[in-house]
Amino acid sequence: MNHRTGHTAQLVQTAETSEVLIYQIGSSGQQLLLDAGVMRRFRKYRQMRWYQKEAGGQLFATLESNRVIIVEATGPRKTDRRTRFGYLPDRAAERQVIVERHAKSLHYIGDWHTHPEQLPQPSHLDLESIAECFRKSKHHLNAFVLVVVGTKRLPDGLSVSIHDGNERLALHPDVRQHLDSDI
User: Fold this and answer.
1) Is 28 a member of any domain?
2) pLDDT surpasses 50 at 164
3) Do the bridges between strand 144-149 and strand 158-163 make them parallel or antiparallel, or are there none, so unpaired?
4) CB 3 within 8 A of CB 142
5) Alpha carbons 62 and 139: distance in angstroms, whole number
6) Considering the domain boundaries, does residue 176 fall inside one?
7) How far apart are CA 183 and CA 166, in angstroms?
8) Strands (E), 17-174
């Protein structure tokens, strides 16, 4: 991912009539895709009620020459620490999942979690966490992805950004095709 340049995003419809969110990553010609299953997981864990706790997990992708396709969003786990306004993952369990998914040719590319706000923004702690994760991980990526899921209907309720350990680039959908959804 070349994360220092501009970006656009769009929704496309798949054969199963679920949406896939696509971000153009700058002028690199690369795309970041969130597949339909990942979007369903994000919807499932939005904090729509006062008693719902933050949820989150890891993002796994297949890597093609010009595409990073996020095909799995894990979590939350019973061993994660979750409150209304906080989420601390079980990092030991996450390390094990990275090994398991890598054996299936899936690459760990970042994290996701929810916030109980319509238009979520990553907190200072969120940004420190993903930066530290990027710096300490063994990988060949230019950046990790951080997705924060809010309460507003998706994709408006998503904060998607990429991080290189020092800088953050927020990705904002420029072109949207709203699909029929009751969520």
Assistant:
1) no
2) yes
3) antiparallel
4) yes
5) 14
6) no
7) 35
8) 19-25, 30-34, 56-63, 67-73, 81-83, 86-88, 107-114, 144-149, 158-163, 168-171
Q: Do the bridges between strand 30-34 and strand 107-114 make them parallel or antiparallel, or are there none, so unpaired?
A: unpaired
Residues 6+ apart with CB under 8 A from 7: 23, 24, 25, 26, 169, 171, 172, 174
Q: How far apart are CA 97 and CA 74, in angstroms?
A: 9
Domain that holds residue 86: 33-171
Higher pLDDT, 175 or 54: 54
CATH number of the domain to which 148 belongs: 3.40.140.10
CB atoms within 10 A of CB 19: 22
Residue type, 70: I
Note whether residue 8 is domain-resident. no
User: Does the pLDDT of residue 8 top 70, yes or no?
Assistant: no
Residue 95, domain member (yes or no): yes
Global pTM reads 0.85
